[in-house]
Amino acid sequence: MVTLSRIRRIKEDQQHTMGLDSAEILALVGSGVSVLETLDSLPASNLSPGDEAFVKSNNRLYVSNGVGWYNTTTVNRTPRWVDEPSNTSYTISDSATPLLITALAADSDNATLLNQSFASDSAQYMVDITTDSSVFTFTPKSADSIGIEVAAGNLTDSNGDFVYTFKWSDGINFVTKVVDISYSPAGGGAGIGGSRGIVGGHWESTDQDDIDYFDINSPATSSAFGSLNTPRGTLGSLSNGTRACFIGGTTSNYGGSAGALTNIEYVTTATTGNGTSLGNLTSTRMYITQSCLSDGTLGYVPGGGGASLSSDIDVFTVMTGGTCTSYGSLASARSGLTGISNTVRGIIVGGYLGGGSTYTNVIEYFAFGSTGTTTSFGTMSTGTAEGKGGAANSTRGVIAGGQTAGSVTTAIDYITLATTGNSSSFGNLNGNRNPCGGNVTDGTKAAFVGLSGQVSIETITIDTTGNASSWGSLPTGSGGNRFQYGTATSGSAA
């Protein structure tokens, strides 16, 4: 038996053409088998039934009937790794940076192997996967996109990760490597929003119809977006990341109930333009400036004023609209409350109970998909309040500004969304804001805008406690009261 030379083996390994030496053949087919280089080497005489021979040129085993030779099987080697993924787990760092993994196999029996790699079901909602030769590219989807998929119930098998199996096959045998890939984008599957802040309506001697927008990641003065169909103040807003909806309010200056509205209109956040009618509330609602919220599919409108204070929670489908239906109710009727959410829970904070200057410090919550009365969450650490702005990412909600104990506050509090408990101090705004325009977030930052003489835009990083930073401004209105009793939300810019 002749063993392949070491030099030949090294060269064939480099070229991925390595064959079998005699020792390897005998290990596969057993002793008592003749090992021949070519098919022509099979003997034509002195044969006995049952003689066996292995031909190296085609990796085939032959058996003689005493007269000739018959092919019985092909000896097939298992593919081997040339570049095996080095880890069993990987992390996609952020929504802008694809993950690249090299995975290459070779087989001496086949020049070309089949790529049969595959991912678990959740991957299709989290990444786009492409392959160029041996390089596998996992391009992350945006936080907005993932948030929508979470809301639609398409990521129930994922905890922010998925399984990918690298598999190369020669058609018979194969080599595999299973890895876990984690991706938790800021805001992904969490607070619904985007990098474009959308502000609409306000009271400025008369009720206004203007809509402005700004980039939460680029400090500057906001730009004109379009106009509402109906000028109004004390309206509410919410977003599913694609549409921003403007809800209720009043056409009577500074909150007169005679002009309270039921209508809902929307804009597409990525495209400037005017509002389009979407549907109606079950009853008139005003002073819902920052109370409305979304799970990415449905929009929720809790409480508010009108002919009287309401405890009702209305619900509608953001992408189809129509007349709202009743979803549940608050523990008590009130207006001026704050709503924040991820795609699992809606959180309701504070509000005005009527009777002059009667405010509440309660925090309540309800689970999306479960109708009924809200459940106690905790209380505000800064006391009673109305008109606060709010925002959230996947784990934390922040509540800022508003009115407490008869005076306007700069305080910012935070809560952990998945657990109940009282709020904790986060930091402070630079200026007093009541009501405070919030619900502007890309999942990492939150912005608070305008209101009560303020034209500035301030931002915080949700996961990092501290004071807000000046970021930009809204256009200055008459008397500096730009955006008083207007509303704010956010969505995708593209």
Describe this protein's structure:
The chain is mostly beta strands and 494 residues long. It contains 4 helices and 44 strands. 6% of the residues lie in helices and 45% in strands. The chain folds into 3 domains: 6-74, YefM-like fold; 80-182, Immunoglobulins (Immunoglobulin-like, Sandwich), CATH 2.60.40; 196-491, Neuraminidase (6 Propeller).
CATH topology category name of the largest domain: Neuraminidase
Which blocks of ≥5 consecutive residues have pLDDT under 50?
1-18, 186-191
- CATH architecture classification name of the largest domain: 6 Propeller
Main β-sheet, in a few words?
5 strands, mixed
Q: What is the number of strand segments?
A: 44
CATH class wording of the largest domain: Mainly Beta
How far the N terminus sits from the C terminus, by CA atoms, comes to: 68 Å
Mean pLDDT: 82
What's the name of the CATH homologous superfamily of the largest domain? Kelch-type beta propeller
Portion of residues within helices: under 10%
Q: How many structural units, i.e. domains? A: 3
State which percent range the strand residues make up. over 45%
Q: Which descriptor suits the 3D outline?
A: elongated
Q: What's the quick description here?
A:
With 494 residues, the protein is mainly beta.
For the structure shown, list the relevant keywords.
single chain, disordered N terminus, 3 domains, Immunoglobulin-like, YefM-like fold, 494 residues, elongated, five-stranded mixed beta sheet, 4 helices, mainly beta, Neuraminidase
